[in-house]
Amino acid sequence: MRATFVHTADNHLGYEQYGSRERFDDFAKAFLHVVDDAIARRADFFVVSGDLFNKRSIDAQTLIQAREALQRLADAGIPAIGIAGNHDRSYYRDGISWLQFLSYLGVLKLLNPIVRDGAPELAEWSQQTMQGLYVPLKDGQIRVYGLPWYGASTARVMRGLAETLEAGRAAEDAAGVEYRVLLLHTGVEGILPQLQGLPTRADFEPLRGLVDYVALGHVHKPYEIDNWLFNPGSTETWGAEESAWDRGYYAVQVDTDVAPGEPKQRAEHITNPRRPFVRFSFRVDGLSDPDSFYEHFERLVLQQAREHAATLTRKPVVDVALTGVFAFDAGAIERTRLEELVKEQFHPLIARIHDSARSNAYELDGVDEDDERADRQGLELRVFEDLLARDARYQTQAGAWAATLSAMKRMALDGESPENIALALRTARAHLLNQAPTLE
């Protein structure tokens, strides 16, 4: 028996990323590409391993996008089979999800088994109840099973599923089942260190030999294990940190006429077209003032734009991280000016500047606040001087600037008028800058 199917996951339709309507459309275009490729390949079936939608409460346009895409498959005679992921399951109080609505319309077979004592019942999916563990295909030679998102209970339900499949294996073999696919919206522990609490490799082992292809979702990074566990990754870039991954979908060729022990499938991972992301970082260390900062930043942006010019066929999302430690007051940097520099060179869809750098914050070393020898005014002067010494613009005259700040504070506490304080500050500033003209 031979068959072809397409496996996708984490399409996140409806995600208006960064508040951009163009990004909203990008997620739909990515999913449509997978659908159209399945039609072009004349696939026998199409599976979605969860998170078709980005959130439970979708708008009308998102529903239209999903329905039109799935209707294309239905019109081509390709059944679409899916499970609910953590993003698109209904709220408990709602009772019905938008995925179930699509199932009601007949464009999606949404697998949702009845689970008793941690074990799913081995029941065929029913259009009337919209419940069931599996869908039979190719005259019963293929079965597609599916478990929706169970969160922390996933490993326990997987063990129950293994018991259910083991108990029903003889009857399935007698019925002529030759190939089995299992849809799971979960990842494998250790693929991404920041994702904790996922099933381990050992948790999957009870299912080995009971299913031929495990179609995973949830983790946006693509991976496959032992030609058995397959995770395609998201079809669009859900977060900037994912932009380097070659995410996409699987086109799978099934052939059960193989020698015992040989794999029954050949899975090709395909990277679908998507909006380009350009990510780079800018280190602020060693830059003594804002002018130097802007000069070096513009130089780096120009370099990056030249390096990516040949590969950017669509307007990119440009994401720049500021890293390191500022040698001056970080508040002196205008983020809008940085964004304009990026827009000038890249002409992007979106320019993002996010600050991962640390300000040269004041830390008082070697001062015991309980030391009776440190009077309040002396401590205040030391604080001001230490702060100013950490800004390269004021280092050479930190003591004098500290005395000026302290004097301004005393004037304010004494009730001096704002006009007189401003005059005194202008006078002190002119005096200090004349002594240190390089600070201007």
Please provide a written account of the structure.
By secondary structure, the chain is α/β, with parallel strands linked by helices. It has three domains: 2-270, Metallo-dependent phosphatases (Purple Acid Phosphatase, chain A, domain 2), CATH 3.60.21; 277-355; 376-439, no CATH class. Helices cover 34% and strands 18% of the residues. The protein has ten helices and 17 strands. It has helices spanning 21-40, 60-75, 98-105, 154-174, 201-204, 290-308, 335-346, 376-389, 398-413, 418-435; strands spanning 2-8, 45-48, 80-82, 109-110, 115-116, 119-120, 134-137, 142-147, 179-184, 213-216, 223-225, 229-231, 249-255, 265-270, 277-283, 317-323, 350-355. The chain has a six-stranded mixed sheet with strand order 4-3-2-1-13-14. A six-stranded mixed sheet has the order 7-8-9-10-12-11, with no helix packed on it. A three-stranded parallel sheet has the order 15-16-17, covered by helices on one side. It is elongated, with a radius of gyration of 31 Å. The termini are far apart.
Care to give the gist of this entry?
The protein is α/β, with parallel strands linked by helices and 440 residues long.
